[in-house]
Write a structure and sequence with these properties.
The chain has 230 residues and is an alpha/beta fold. The protein has helices spanning 7-12, 28-31, 45-57, 72-82, 110-115, 122-125, 138-155, 176-186, and strands spanning 17-23, 65-69, 91-94, 169-174, 204-210, 220-228. A 6-stranded mixed sheet has the order 3-2-4-1-5-6, with helices on both faces.
């Protein structure tokens, strides 16, 4: 999706578009290390504190729009963030930014899953090639993230013939899986290496996107911040 460019070439590009990546605050299930996926537990008090820290982090920063997973824990985080942004800001919820669906494992811990099987499930040996029982494959998650990313690009008018919006800041509130995949796609890293990005609950990361100088040229992306926490 993006090509490698030299530092000198980056200096020639216009100001970047900043995409802030916020992982939602903690829930009871995340504290208990349960697979949550598409299930919908709310934030606990610690998660709300993390979201308030994120809101404080954006205090005084003009944000064009907030994108969010449509799960309750993400929307709660996005709503709290919006309170720290000057003026009114739209929160657009989308299924594309949900966590991977873990099927029959949702609500279970790793120990509970292993207690009910005679051998290690394939997903734990090969999470890219194997899906949780009754759940979503990694390929399906990647396809969702690509779709969500295209929607954002269309929204900010980055498509062919569009005009790049200078100094624009956007926020995406999502989950560990989709955000790690997104970083891989934008940084031209194999998606199978997504586990090399650590994104804790309530953390903030950021990526700067530069448009190509000529029509049809790919974006250049720089990781500007990773896993900043309260």
């Amino acid at each position: 999706m993006v090509d490698d460019v030299s530092l000198e070439e980056l200096r020639m590009l216009r100001r970047p578009l900043r995409l802030w990546l916020a992982r939602h605050g903690v829930t009871r299930w995340s504290v208990e290390k349960r697979y949550c996926g598409w299930s919908d537990p709310p934030l606990v008090s610690e998660g709300e504190e993390q979201a308030r820290w994120l809101a404080q982090r954006f205090k005084g920063q003009a944000i064009a729009k907030i994108y969010s997973s449509d799960t309750r824990r993400a929307v709660q985080t996005a709503e709290i963030i919006s309170q720290g942004v000057p003026g009114s800001v739209t929160i657009e919820q989308a299924l594309e930014w949900r966590e991977m669906h873990f099927g029959t494992w949702e609500g279970l811990t790793y120990e509970e899953i292993m207690a009910n099987t005679s051998e290690q499930p394939g997903f734990f040996r090969d999470p890219v090639g194997e899906a949780p029982p009754g759940g979503e494959s990694f390929e399906q998650l990647v396809m969702r993230v690509r779709k969500g990313l295209r929607k954002i690009f269309m929204d900010v008018n980055v498509g062919a013939g569009g005009q790049w919006e200078e100094q624009a800041h956007y926020v995406l509130v999502s989950h560990g899986g989709p955000l790690r995949v997104l970083l891989c796609l934008l940084l031209a890293s194999p998606v199978g290496r997504q586990w090399q990005f650590r994104l804790d609950p309530g953390s903030l990361s950021a990526i700067d996107l530069f448009p190509g100088q000529r029509e049809g040229e790919p974006l250049a992306a720089i990781l500007a911040l990773l896993n900043e926490q309260r």
